[in-house]
């Protein structure tokens, strides 16, 4: 798990309370757009549903996570669906993707070098 340096340089570490920090680590560990139901908090993480909800609320308020609605079929529900929330880290706390261009020329040069040395060995 990676947390970018901007998390510290912009002072987010000082703004988070313990519930928010715990939830940030949980959200960072999971894939994007995962559900974190408060009713499972005690079973999954060992803390209360209230702590769970306070942590997510703080992360949303600070803009460290984003939330989207997810509709699930539920034939017994009055509307036939239930709504759950899914979360992911925002760009502020998401690690940057490695740039492929930086590694690609090196790999290409290594292949060319290997091909040239095999040709040179065959010509002798």
Write up what this structure looks like:
This protein has helices at residues 6-9, 12-15, 18-29, 41-45, 49-62, 100-123, and strands at residues 34-35, 65-73, 81-89. The model has no long low-confidence stretch (mean pLDDT 86). The chain has six helices and three strands, in the order αααβααββα. It has a three-stranded antiparallel β-sheet with strand order 1-3-2. A hairpin with a 7-residue loop joins strand 2 and strand 3 (81-89). With 124 residues, the protein is an alpha+beta fold. Helix 3 (18-29) crosses helix 5 (49-62). Helices cover 51% and strands 16% of the residues.
Summarize the structure.
This protein is α+β, with helices and mostly antiparallel strands and about 120 residues long. It is about 50% helix and about 15% strand.
Summarize this structure as a short list of keywords or feature phrases.
124 residues, alpha+beta, 3-stranded antiparallel β-sheet, 3 strands, 51% helix, 16% strand
Largest sheet: 3 strands, antiparallel
Question: What is the topology, as strand order, of the major beta sheet?
Answer: 1-3-2
Question: Rg, please?
Answer: 23 Å
Helicity, as a percent range: 40-55%
Strand element count:
3
List the helices and strands and how they pair.
Blueprint: H1 6-9, H2 12-15, H3 18-29, E1 34-35, H4 41-45, H5 49-62, E2 65-73, E3 81-89, H6 100-123
Antiparallel strand pairs: 1-3, 2-3
